[in-house]
Amino acid sequence: MQKVSKLTIFLFLLPALLFFSLYMVAPIPLSAFYSFFRWKGFGERIFIGLNNWIELIGDDIFHKALFNNFKLVFLSLFGQLPIALALAILLAKKTKITDILKTIYFVPLLMSSVAVATLWSNIYDPNFGLLNMFLQTIGFENLFINYLGSPKLALYSVIVAINWRYIPFYMILFLAAIKNIPDELYEASKVDGASKWENFRYITLPLLRPTIINASVLSLVGSLKFFDIVYVLTGGGPNNASELMATYMYKNAFNSLRMGYGSTIALALFIIAFTFSILFMKATRKGDK
Amino acid sequence: MSKSAKLIVVLLAGIWLLITLYPFIFMLQTSMKTNMEYFTSSVWAFPENISLDNYLTAMNSGFIRFYLNSLFVTISSLVIIIISASMAAYMIAKIDFKLSNSVFSFFLAGMMIPIHITLIPVYKMTQTMGLYDKLTGLIGPYVAFSLPISIFILTGFIAEIPRELEEAAYIDGANIFQIFTKIIFPLIKPAVSTVAIYNLVLLWNEFIYALVLISNPDKWNLTLGLWNFQGQYGTNVPMVMTGVMLSVLPLLLFYIFLQEKVIKGMTAGAVKG
Amino acid sequence: MKKSLSLILSISMFLVVLLSVSVIAQEEIVLWDITTEAESELPVIQDAIARFEADNPEYTVRHVPTSNDDYKTKLQVAMGANNEPDIFMSWGGGPLKEYVDAGKVMDMTEALKQDDWIERFVPAGLEIARFNENYYAVPITGMRAVLMFYRTDIFEEVGVEIPETYEDFKDVIVQLKDAGYIPLSLANKNRWTGSMYYMYLVDRIGGKEAFLNAASRDGGSFASEAFVRAGEVIQELVDLGAFPPGVNGLDEDQGQSRQLLYADRAAMYLMGDWAYGLIRNENPAMLENFSFFRFPVFEDGKGDPTNLVGSPGGNMYSIAKSSKHKEAAIEFLKYLSDETAAKQLVDLGNLAPFRGVEKYLDDPFMVDIYTALNNANYVQLYYDQYLPPQIAQAHLDTMQGLFGKTMTPEEAAQMMEDEAQKYFNEN
After folding, report:
1. Rounded to an integer, what distance in angstroms lies between the CA atom of residue C81 and that of residue C161?
2. Residues 263..302 of C with a Cβ closer than 8 Å to B: which?
3. What is the mean pLDDT of chain A?
4. What is the nearest CA distance from A265 to chain B, expressed in angstroms?
5. Mean pLDDT score of chain B, rounded to an integer?
6. Is the distance from CB of B38 to CB of B30 less than 8 angstroms?
7. Which residue of chain C has the CA closest to A51?
8. What share of chain A in percent tops pLDDT 90?
9. N or C: which end of chain A has fewer CB within 10 A?
10. What HEC string does chain C produce?
11. Structure ipTM
12. pLDDT digits (tens, 9 = 90+) for A170-213
């Protein structure tokens, strides 16, 4: 195709580069810088070399948080994407009903994180909550489930809320991708007498592959840096049972006034997220060739 | 499709409908209770007397102003995001220039940054630019923070556009800018609308930057205004729900509106292979 | 005639312009605190501002309230970027000291000594903002005491009396439990709620020295006997089934602890005196069924039975060292602590930490609290306010471990001690 001048390329990239560079470039190098200090976020900074990093490597809570993040990655990926895809396929046909459904299904994404957390806090309330009340009415009177207070269940209860909240996003992402698939392909296969399932398997799915991969990257990164719903629902508790890297970082940086250590955690989070997403994209790109 | 398969589909759709609709109804009905009723009868019960008092209180506390502030910041940011992200995505997706991978990775890295460590640097930058405690001061960070994911999504969609379309236009004498505005952009409308909706929702509900960069109650956006009902020792839950309702309704309307527009746009100028 | 008229007109116009210019050129004092719409004290702040501005037209006060938890983050970031407001609020103690040590807070000692302004305040309230012999904040709202609220009607129904000692307390708990009630309502997702039990226990068992010596690193330790025993007692109570099931997942902010009381499922509630205001707001019909008693004593304990856990100063207001309006700010704080403000606070059910405030008290509940506070030989400021934040957080973290029995009392105490050692080694 034509050669586009370097100037043109630069001009097209300029607005995005400008905003991004002004605000987003500084934080990572700065965090790296702060990670070598003991600092409260204000006042004096004391140089301590690699101490924060040494502490991080041996920090049990950080290990637990990291492990929780990976659980979240896995359960989000397989909890959100398939359901979102199913919903998207369901809604792909434009009818009055699908239009209404599309709107209602979107509601979880519209609410703020705090609203979502308030809602689920009430659903999970062991004494008055919807879930336990529901269980009681269908006969499990003695079954008392401690969704948020049990160290074993807390993380999974939160993950359910997270999945509920973000499925609509992937749903509209997949919907947009499905819309791009030309109708002729389906018409042609109809002539060949293909079933709905074959349509899905041989037309829809392969053509959606790039979008599914992108959605997976988004889900992966989002899960690794996840913060708000967890922080409001459990605070990372009980006793760090549902701790994530981002909540642990926030607590250290802002609650314990250990900005230096918090920066260390943040940088570690960044490196982990970056590494895994690059690896993931490389691995899936090989499939494309 | 077989009858039983159809049944399963309907069942699943119905369950999902319940799971998404009921919470909304719960929030709506809670917003119409008084704080007293919330605590004295069951949390799940329908309000005995449907009361719109909470809404009146919210309106009186300056909600209109909060709305306008949120609207200003969100729409401004959105416009800038869409334009700058699609332009950048086009370059990265279609033009094979030397640094295209590096630029993509550069923006991608932005997706990995946890928002809280940007607080102090962004605060300082905003102050330096003289934009502290100004609504326009929020636009910069909002755009910057939303760009990575927007570029990522748009790049993915633009990459799928067949090369032939661009080549045909080029042969017809179009320059790169015309190709972008007349060919590419119309084709990615569904993706753009997805990105627009996602960012809209995110920025509309955005809290932490607003908390840190805005001070004057006159400049409060919706999320800060909502937070007024959170007390030191106890929360007025019905009031918070009222705030949530007032916040969600415009978003819902915008979403419906956008859907309509996008559908029209799609059927009007859709490309056939 | 026309000439003099136009002259008068021009002069008046000139004066109007001059006046409006001087009105425009007002100095702005920025005030950050947590008095949002949800806080009952808001009218008092607003009134003080109005009165101050009326008497000092060259100044205007911009009040920026933020809700509790987010307030701390907002203030920290502003401090970190050297853009703190003129006046800011804190709860005194360790967190305030951090700002003092970083050179951010104005020393108010001189201002307090002038005209005996210092006499206005309850001494204990000033103490929690006193570091290195100097004062860095003044207490403005709410002396607070943590009390054991209880349902008088449930006690009557089950036939139990107010317990004096810990042994009595255990009996009461067992009897309530047998009658099908949750003895102690507690929402411990927030951790500071469980901490109230812990703090009282340490005080009752080891006396105030147990904590004070550990906090000042003066021969004491957070892993000492009193702390371990406090943890053991908590777990003893957990084993007795005294607390609600799922206690670590219940949210105090949403009132999930009080809901149990309102639903007649729980009988007692250890909480700060603000609970009275909350109940009055949420379930006024049930208010008459509530009363309170003081935390039980240990027969073999060293603690003074009159001691209370709480805050002698409530919300404290400080002035930033970087403020360009220090004198005006002091003036404003005087309005915030004068007789008018005192009376207004009391009317709102707030025990203002000013001397002589008792003459305004007529609500019997408030009189009771005031008496308890007055008679207390010592008021233990909540650990998470007294201690440096780093140690405070470690302490709070152990609370869920204790109540959920995922930590032994020794582990919990040791964890807090370890964090303290780490902090003081580094500082």
Report:
1. 56
2. 272, 274-275, 278, 281-285
3. 90
4. 10
5. 86
6. yes
7. C426
8. 59
9. C
10. CHHHHHHHHHHHHHHHHHHHHHHHCCEEEEEEECCCCCCCCHHHHHHHHHHHHHHCCCEEEEEEECCHHHHHHHHHHHHHCCCCCCEEEECCHHHHHHHHHCCCECCCHHHHHHHHHHHHECHHHHHCCEECCEECCEEEECCEEEEEEEEHHHHHHHCCCCCCEHHHHHHHHHHHHHCCCEEECCCCCCCHHHHHHHHHHHHHHHHHHHHHHHHCCCCCCCCCHHHHHHHHHHHHHHHCCCCCCCHHHCCCCCCHHHHHHHCCCEEEEEEECHHHHHHHHHCHHHHHHEEEECCCECCCCCCCCCCEEEECCCEEEEEECCCCCHHHHHHHHHHHCCHHHHHHHHHCCCCCCECCHHHHCCCHHHHHHHHHHHHCCCEEECHHHHCCHHHHHHHHHHHHHHHCCCCCHHHHHHHHHHHHHHHHHHC
11. 0.89
12. 999 999 898 888 888 888 887 887 777 777 788 888 889 999 99
Poorest-pLDDT segment among A251-255, B227-231, C101-105, C318-322: B227-231
Cβ–Cβ below 8 Å for C283 and B39: yes
Highest mean pLDDT pick, A142-156, C351-365, C377-391: C377-391
C390 to chain A: which residues are within 8 Å by CB? Answer: 256-258
CATH 3.40.190.10 in chain C, residue ranges: 27-143+312-380, 144-310+387-423
CA C368 to chain CA centroid, nearest Å: 18
Which residues fall within 8 angstroms of residue B185, CB to CB, at 6 or more apart? B86, B192
- Whether the per-residue pLDDT at C12 is higher than 80: the answer is no
Question: Which two three-digit tokens encode residue B128?
Answer: 């330096």
Closest chain C residue by Cα to residue B224: C66
pLDDT at A115: 86
Residues of A in contact with B147 (CB under 8 A): 16, 19-20, 24
Name the residue among B212, B217, B231 with its Cβ closest to that of C64: B217
Q: How far is C193 from chain B (nearest CA, A)?
A: 11
* Mutation site, B44, B132, B230, B241, interface C, largest C CB count within 10 A: B230
Q: Which residues from B are below 8 Å from C when comparing CB atoms?
A: 35-36, 38-40, 43, 61, 119-120, 123-124, 127, 132, 208, 211-212, 215-217, 227-237, 239
Interface of C with B in 82-141 (CB under 8 A): 83, 85
Judged by a CB distance cut-off of 8 A, whether residue A49 touches chain C is no
pLDDT tens digits for C23-74? Answer: 556 899 999 999 987 788 899 999 999 999 999 999 999 999 998 888 999 9
For an interface test with A, which of B20, B158, B224, B251 has the most A Cβ atoms less than 10 Å from its Cβ?
B20
Average pLDDT over residues B234-241: 81
Superfamily the domain C27-143+312-380 falls into: Periplasmic binding protein-like II (3.40.190.10)
- The residue with tokens 């609290």 is C369
Residue B54 has a pLDDT of 87
Tell me the CATH number for domain C144-310+387-423.
3.40.190.10
Q: Which of C104, C105, C188, C189 to mutate to test the interface with A (most CBs of A within 10 A)?
A: C189
Q: What is the pLDDT of residues C227-284, one digit of tens each?
A: 999 999 999 999 999 999 899 999 998 889 999 999 999 999 999 999 988 898 889 9
Q: Which residue has the tokens 């070399």?
A: A49
pLDDT of residue C25: 67
Determine, for residues C247 and A149 on separate chains, whether the beta-carbon distance falls below 8 Å. Answer: yes
Taking contacts as CB-CB distances below 8 angstroms, the residues of chain B near A179 are 190, 266
pLDDT of res. A285? 73
- In this prediction, residue A127 carries a pLDDT of 87
- Domain chopping of chain B, boundaries: 32-267
